[in-house]
Amino acid sequence: MNGVSSGVLISLGAYFLVMIGIGIYAYFKQANDSEGYMLGGRNLGPAVTALSAGASDMSGWLLLGLPGYMYADGVVSIWIALGLTTGAFLNYIIVAPRLRVYTEIADNAITLPDYFANRFEDKSHMLRVISALVIILFFTVYTAASLVGGGKLFESSLNLSYSTGLWVTAGVVVAYTLFGGFLAVSMTDFVQGVIMLFAMVIVPVVAFTDLGGVSATTEAVRNIDPNLLNITSGMTIIGIISLLAWGLGYFGQPHIIVRFMAIRSVKDIPTARNIGMSWMIVSLIGALATGFAGRAYVQKTAMTLEDPETIFLVFTQFLFTPLVSGFLLAAILAAIMSTISSQLLVVSSSLTKDVYKLFFDREASESRQVMVGRISVVLVAVVSIMLASNPESSVLSLVSHAWAGFGAAFAPLVVFSLTWRRMNRNGAVAGMVVGALTVILWVYGGFEHNGMPLNDWLYAIVPGFVLSTIAIFAVSMMTGGPEASVTAKFAEMESHLGK
Questions:
Q1: Which residue range is the domain that position 202 belongs to?
Q2: Membrane-crossing residues (predicted)?
């Protein structure tokens, strides 16, 4: 084994041990009940909440996808960063405080389907079942795709087999999620968020230094193609709207907003917001800068780069020592694993609370629910590994649409359930179904606009979000107001927030 591989493996091995160690610590620290395992006892501090939400959100997209987008298309990639930043900020302002208070008022809801059912006092369980099915289906596939990323990283950077990378990535994530539950996931996310932030600062700084500074790098990019510096190059109004619309998805991502349910107090949310937004802005700038510097670096070294999304890996290989390179590769794994663990836990919680307890054992004890939750983590991981066993698996095609699917199905429902007293259960069901179906038809219906697939012309989340919103308003207004007990809980939520 060469020196580079040995140094890299030392760093990665240390990283894996830290993650598992956190899982063991969380196992002994958390309460052995469903709220403790699935929501950390609603006792997360603001820093852990913020970095946990950020790390579980960004995934490998931050270190691979966004730099690759900047590398390939230039500064037009800034539009998507602006959309995401705006969406994340509004999520902290609109959703976070209301959801933290309302989930407790709504019979101490622990999962998002749990909240929907309790918020609207849905005795038919329709809301809970439909939302749980959406979460279980999409997140199982999403987890599989994230595992593919881990397998490919091991294959391309460590010369190990894809299968080995798949099992190692899954094994470590399952280990700390299985034992430590939500607390372990959140604490590891915090550590992973710190690692990702460091990587997103050091890589572009070293790259720009190697290229002679920002001015020299900018001039080099200009000489390659001046359009790379034009923020509207090749863009239409519809195209810009599509990129900015990524921000709409934040309101409906279960693995992100569950952090708001778990923070210890609504008073901690402003601190969490400041930490989380600072982390996000620095990380996004670093990712964009990495792709920008990468374009000049590849030109300078006359290398061939077949896949723009590997530019971060190129820098780790050529600009850093083996130990630092291993740390930077750990940052990619941190991004991948933080998302996998969050998704595993969300699916596990939904299987436990919204399937097992609802249909099989309504009197299940707290310890039994925790046991079912742990079994569910393993089962979902196994299914995901099976789906990910082929690196070219078609599940990857779903990942680019999962954000739109959750955003259209859940985002309007979450926002209006927290802000509109008049909304009723029928409107909630209609909005969720219309949003999900719109995205599915928009993406897979085979429809075109001027010879272009609809989703390439306009991102599916836009029509999905709009039509879901219309359905919520229209159906709620046509089917009568909610029960007095429902509006009473809404008034209690507003009272807690000082509205």
A1: 3-392
A2: 6-28, 76-95, 126-145, 165-185, 190-208, 228-251, 272-298, 310-336, 371-389, 401-420, 427-445, 457-475
